[in-house]
Design brief:
By secondary structure, this protein is of the alpha/beta class. 45% of the residues lie in helices and 19% in strands. It has two domains: 164 residues, 3-Layer(aba) Sandwich (D-Maltodextrin-Binding Protein, domain 2), CATH 3.40.190; 115 residues, D-Maltodextrin-Binding Protein, domain 2. The protein contains 13 helices and eleven strands.
């Protein structure tokens, strides 16, 4: 076939495509042609906010468009993720989701405004970090076995703080209670600062949360750390044993987060975002900045992130049901 004839056939095929298909193809080739909004379901200055802004500085260089951070805290993260779920599926609205409104919510809340697995696409894991078990500095326990032995002796006098009902902080302690065999009353707080203050003041006797949030109280000699919940020791916490190596093999609990987009977003755009975020997460300066916040840089394919979330949901649904956690 002559070149001109072949070209004519190609052109005829393109013009025969439905208008919406042509528009979609054009959108994919020019994405992003406008600023990209990233919804953060937490307030300014939070770890999620810092992560998005850190990534944004590097992604602007690749996308030639600004990233607009849109903080929408509330309802345990569901308020912000609902905005993402209901946005146009054009790749111009992303959200940074975390354990609670993605993997825990469907098993805790009587009703959610969106279905995470159906209404959102998992794009890429951004960061993760273990929780740490903290107690008052005056607590006689200095190791996890000592803490468990002490906790068992407290009976119904022991209470533990969390950074919120249904949070990783809450569920990790429920998992530890289950495997270690002690009882404690849950006292939820609105975030790490008040939870840490309650522990330091002796109003509660234990707390599992991320280490950076507790640094002022640790440095002030008011609380101390007993163990971390990662599978291996973190670079910045080499002195702190893991729960797994302290008598409970296989124990792991991570506070994680990642980028999501609305269901229906074209695969080409999802793959582009995934590839660019992966490239940015390999930047040594960014990795160092995240590490200083106690964060482990993520990455990987969208399929791997989806599989990770499914495994987390299966694991924690059993803990939620066993603990009888039900939220309105």
């Amino acid at each position: 076939m002559k070149p001109l004839a072949a070209l004519a056939l190609v052109c005829a095929g393109l013009t025969a495509l439905p208008a919406h298909t042509l528009a979609q193809a054009q959108a994919q080739s020019t994405w992003p042609d406008r600023p990209v909004r990233v919804v953060v379901p937490a307030p300014p200055g939070s770890s999620l906010d810092i992560i998005v802004r850190s990534l944004g500085d590097k992604l602007r260089e690749r996308w030639k468009q600004p990233l607009v951070v849109d903080n929408k805290p509330g309802a345990g993260g569901m308020l912000g993720m609902d905005v993402v779920a209901k946005a146009a599926p054009d790749g111009l609205t992303l959200g940074i989701g975390f354990n609670g409104p993605i993997a825990f919510g469907p098993f805790m809340y009587k009703k959610m405004p969106y279905a995470p697995a159906k209404d959102l696409i998992a794009v890429v894991l951004t960061t993760s970090q273990p929780n740490v078990l903290a107690v008052q500095a005056s607590n006689p326990a200095n190791t996890l076995p000592e803490f468990v032995a002490w906790a068992r002796k407290q009976g119904d006098k022991l209470s533990y703080a969390s950074v919120g009902a249904g949070s990783s902080s809450h569920l990790t302690m429920e998992l530890l209670k289950s495997v270690a065999g002690f009882e404690a009353v849950h006292v939820p707080y609105a975030g790490s600062p008040p939870a840490g203050t309650s522990l330091a003041a002796g109003q509660t006797q234990a707390l599992l949360t991320v280490e950076p949030a507790l640094l002022p109280l640790i440095q002030g000699g008011r609380i101390k750390l007993i163990a971390a919940t990662g599978a291996q020791r973190m670079d910045g916490l080499r002195h702190l044993p893991t729960v797994a190596e302290s008598g409970y093999p296989g124990f792991e609990s991570l506070a994680w987060n990642g980028l999501f987009c609305p269901a229906g977003t074209p695969p080409e755009i999802v793959n582009r975002i995934n590839a660019d975020v992966n490239a940015v997460l390999k930047d040594p300066a960014l990795r160092d900045a995240l590490a200083r916040q106690g964060l482990i840089a993520g990455g990987g394919s969208a399929a791997e992130f989806k599989a990770f979330i499914e495994a987390e949901a299966a694991k924690w649904s059993a803990i939620i049901q066993r603990a009888g956690i039900s939220l309105d």
